[in-house]
Amino acid sequence: MDPRLAADLAALPELLESTRGYATGVLGGLDERPAAHPPVPHAAEPLPAEGTGLAAALATFAERWAPGFSGSAGPRYLGFVTGGATPAALAGDWLTGVFDQNGSSEVGSAGGELERETLGWLRELFGLGAGQSGAFVSGATMSNFVGLAIGREWLGERLGVDVARQGAHALGPVEVLSGAPHSSIYKALSMVGLGRDAVRQVPVRPGREAVDVAALRDALAARRGRPAIVVANAGTVNTVDFDDLRAIAALREEFPFWLHVDAAFGAFAALSPEHAPLLDGLAEADSVCVDLHKWLNVPYDSAVQYTRRPDLQARVFGNSAAYLGPLTERPDFLHLTPENSRRLRALATWFSLAAYGRAGHRDIVERNVASARRVGARLAELPGVRLLAPVRLNVVCLAVPGDPAEVARALADTGEAFVTPTVYAGTPALRLAFSNWRTAEADEERIVAAFRKVL
């Protein structure tokens, strides 16, 4: 054994304790760490011919790289709908590396059963039915990818085509109907072979991002019975608007379509009695996307997908190899997801749900919504600032004086807040997404003060 590796093995308890101490210091300093850092070029060092051992590597990282890392785990990072990591989720993530289970195969490990239990807990949390089965994937983009890939296979089933064998070209032209699709839908369609141009945007309701259901009905009727995919939104990225899922699902009584619901972070509205009605009809979806490293506050990367058609899912993602075993009625997860190799992402989620339950995660959701409402109202009082939409859930979308991208950079330079620019209804804007379990009223004060400073 390499002498440095052997020395690290011998000193492993002490090394892990020093790493724990360093991590504790980083987390304890989140209030002082800048919410974001402008990227600074680093001259690449050559690959070490001889390593330095863990202790020296940690010291090098702490000196050379850690100072440039953002405070994205903290309470004033408001970009991209980014959560943090609850204490239990962080512990689960560390133990994921400790046990290093193969999350694809259930041979020789209880990891698959833990993932199935966790999926059941989440299914209950979001109000999905027992007929929805799922799997963990890396994020919302991959969850949408899986859902649309299954929907593509359903189209083939309706048209007498085995797409998994013959290819997407055998389907002919496909339409994907949606009111305000997230950019990841276009990316996923590119990856599944249906193409970005398959999207046909349906008119939305006036002043909303929610689809006009009557217009959607007309678009489906115009297809004269040819099946389509409909992508509905449960929480749009700019204004957290919700499509009328119940009304959309009811259209299947008249028209053939696969209903995919992008509920990347909007699904967590189910935890709040005030907002849970927004998700009425979610259980009727054929496939559902939910991103966990957003509002569940588990570490990157983590998301889940659910579907009513695991048989079609296995047809798409099944992997035939003698050493992997046969594809049974209860497939291993490698037959249900794009990756053959995957870590046991479910463990961090299992820990957070076991530790805090429905009540604890409901508290996170409701506190974040309250923060968004308070900060949105206070920012709207600043000269030249106006809300572009009501604060429906946890996102504030507002117009500001000047170039929003420059304002976002100025805010980041203060170290007090990180927000992202967007465009809503043709208006350049800023969006603030409150998703972190730590965010408190003291953080709201710092965010508002940073806006006052740069505007």
From TrEMBL:
GO biological process, one term: carboxylic acid metabolic process
SUPFAM superfamilies in the record: PLP-dependent transferases (SSF53383)
Modification N6-(pyridoxal phosphate)lysine, positions: 294
Gene Ontology terms, MF aspect: aromatic-L-amino-acid decarboxylase activity; pyridoxal phosphate binding
Pfam family, one: Pyridoxal_deC
UniProt source species: Actinoplanes digitatis
UniProt similarity note: Belongs to the group II decarboxylase family.
Cofactors (names): pyridoxal 5'-phosphate
InterPro entries noted in UniProt: Aromatic_deC (IPR010977), PyrdxlP-dep_de-COase (IPR002129), PyrdxlP-dep_Trfase (IPR015424), PyrdxlP-dep_Trfase_major (IPR015421), PyrdxlP-dep_Trfase_small (IPR015422)
Name of the protein this chain belongs to: Glutamate/tyrosine decarboxylase-like PLP-dependent enzyme
Domain of life: Bacteria
Record keywords: Decarboxylase, Lyase, Pyridoxal phosphate
Signal peptide: none
Keyword match Lyase: yes
Coiled-coil intervals: none
